[in-house]
């Protein structure tokens, strides 16, 4: 009797789940008649048109230029993805608290590495942890970091001086510098990262994991986790996840021991209060702190997000300086007004630049360090006058938003003047979203902008940057925007003014 009842309950549940899936799938199919899309295969969807991650943007660019605000595509037969490419549709999703996409495609691919930190968490957990961690980015916490920005930049510039004005690939040394900054500012970690170079195992690990994630994202079979774990690349990826977790856990354990021996006041007197201190000591309204696994997830998230995206922005800023020499001289003139006495940048100097911030923002528009982000609507939502069923994945293509000719005049022209106050006021604020926007915007954007300003101003104050005309870089959208075959520049010391 009990066995019969149990089987009945299981059967009823399976019928319910199947009917729910079928109903949801029928709702998704209706989207085909509501949004523009390319021809798709009944099984592969749009995947057969995508050989690499860049193709996701390339195949939809003509539709974006034609004025469509939402574009539909399918990753296999599983479910549709809506690409939003216009501020009017982007703002609907960014103003909401829709969670990150964790289906077969989306942020689920980075969860084994980054866990359930701010980047990937949702709901009450995200709200609680976001509130707890906001204190880590208060200006009083950020202010002492300028000393670190300067010392890291000093090491970086010494490396540039040793190049004897020869062309060098810059993304790698810049990535090392931003990782060095993140480790020192957020974790007070001294690891000689820039001296060890790309041979540092964590640097190698991060770059390789990013590559493996992108390869997996365009493969129908390996999107299924049990199958992926059986592949050679899957085994490699999970092994590297273990190393990344070990690296971050060692940093955490060392700090825990240190905090047990010292009072909070002693820590403040000895060094700046950093991100890890706040992680370990933060308490919510119930007096509860973060668990060990939550702390590790946030450390892993900030180690990645805090250095790779900023490295992309800085690298492309260097290229833009070289590619547009007249603009470089405007940046240089602006910097000289601020750094005419001391070569070190002070906290107060960050607000004194006039043209430099315009230049940085235009670089981030033109090259979009983060090419896309993703959400999954938890409730039905109206986008472009169409009701979107719950659980639909929505991609926000920064690349297309920032190059949309229906929003930006001459989007392929590099014009820092787009970011004067008058120009910004006349434009939809969701036309420029390099740090996302709304309640889930990047919590560390002020940290990143301060670091970018420091590095660019210090370097351009000492060097003139030139690009290699024989090796014009091709931007490749990956987890961050890189150059396909490297980014080759040379840094020529400026002759001091008489």
UniProtKB/TrEMBL annotation:
Record-listed heme binding positions: 442
Cross-referenced Gene3D superfamilies: Cytochrome P450
PROSITE patterns per record: CYTOCHROME_P450 (PS00086)
Residues annotated as transmembrane: none
Cofactors named for this entry: heme
GO terms of molecular function: heme binding; iron ion binding; monooxygenase activity; oxidoreductase activity, acting on paired donors, with incorporation or reduction of molecular oxygen
InterPro entries, A to Z: Cyt_P450, Cyt_P450_CS, Cyt_P450_E_grp-I, Cyt_P450_sf, Cytochrome_P450_Monoox
Keyword Ribonucleoprotein: no
Top-level taxon of origin: Eukaryota
Keywords for this protein: Heme, Iron, Metal-binding, Monooxygenase, Oxidoreductase
Pfam families: p450 (PF00067)
Record family assignment: Belongs to the cytochrome P450 family.
PANTHER family assigned to the protein according to its UniProt record, in alphabetical order: CYTOCHROME P450 FAMILY 4 (PTHR24291), CYTOCHROME P450, FAMILY 4, SUBFAMILY B, POLYPEPTIDE 7 (PTHR24291:SF201)
Protein name: Cytochrome P450
Organism (species): Patella caerulea
């Amino acid at each position: 009797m009990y066995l019969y009842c149990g089987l009945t309950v299981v059967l009823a549940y399976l019928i319910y789940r199947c009917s729910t899936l079928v109903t949801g799938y029928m709702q998704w199919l209706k989207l085909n008649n509501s949004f523009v899309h390319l021809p798709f295969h009944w099984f592969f969807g749009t995947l057969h048109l995508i050989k690499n991650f860049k193709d996701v943007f390339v195949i939809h660019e003509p539709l974006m230029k034609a004025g469509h605000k939402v574009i539909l595509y399918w990753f296999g037969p599983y479910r549709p993805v809506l690409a939003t490419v216009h501020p009017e549709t982007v703002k609907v999703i960014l103003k909401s608290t829709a969670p990150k996409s964790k289906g077969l495609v989306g942020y689920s691919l980075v969860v084994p590495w980054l866990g359930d930190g701010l980047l990937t968490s949702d709901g009450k957990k995200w709200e609680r942890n976001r509130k707890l961690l906001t204190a880590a980015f208060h200006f009083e916490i950020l202010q002492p970091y300028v000393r670190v920005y300067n010392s890291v930049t000093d090491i970086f510039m010494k490396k540039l001086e040793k190049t004897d004005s020869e062309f060098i690939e810059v993304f790698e040394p810049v990535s090392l510098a931003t990782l060095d900054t993140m480790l020192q500012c957020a974790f007070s970690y001294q690891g000689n990262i820039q001296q060890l170079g790309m041979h540092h195992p964590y640097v190698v690990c991060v770059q390789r994991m990013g590559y493996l994630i992108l390869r997996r994202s365009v493969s129908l079979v390996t999107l299924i986790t049990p199958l992926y774990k059986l592949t050679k690349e899957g085994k490699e990826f999970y092994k590297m996840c273990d190393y990344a977790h070990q690296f971050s856990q060692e940093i955490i354990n060392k700090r825990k021991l240190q905090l047990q021996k010292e009072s909070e006041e002693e820590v403040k007197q000895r060094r700046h209060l950093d991100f890890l201190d706040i992680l370990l000591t933060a308490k919510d309204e119930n007096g509860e702190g973060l668990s060990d696994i939550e702390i590790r997830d946030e450390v892993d998230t900030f180690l990645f997000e805090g250095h790779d995206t900023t490295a992309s922005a800085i690298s492309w800023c260097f290229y833009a300086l070289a590619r547009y020499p007249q603009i470089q001289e405007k940046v240089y003139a602006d910097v000289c007004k601020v750094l005419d006495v001391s070569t070190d940048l002070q906290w107060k100097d960050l607000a004194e630049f006039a043209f430099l911030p315009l230049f940085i923002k235009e670089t981030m528009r033109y090259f979009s360090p983060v090419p896309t982000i993703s959400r999954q609507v938890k409730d039905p939502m109206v986008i472009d006058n169409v009701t979107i069923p719950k659980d639909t994945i929505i991609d926000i293509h920064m690349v297309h938003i920032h190059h949309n000719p229906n929003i930006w005049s001459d989007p392929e022209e590099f014009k820092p003047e787009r970011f004067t106050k008058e120009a910004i006021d006349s434009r939809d604020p969701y036309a420029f979203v390099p740090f996302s926007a709304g309640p889930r915007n990047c919590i560390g954007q002020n940290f990143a902008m301060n670091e970018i300003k420091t590095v660019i101003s210090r370097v351009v104050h000492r060097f003139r940057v030139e690009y290699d005309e024989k090796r014009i870089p091709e931007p490749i959208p990956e987890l961050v925007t890189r150059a396909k075959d490297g980014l080759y520049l040379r840094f020529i010391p400026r002759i001091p003014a008489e």
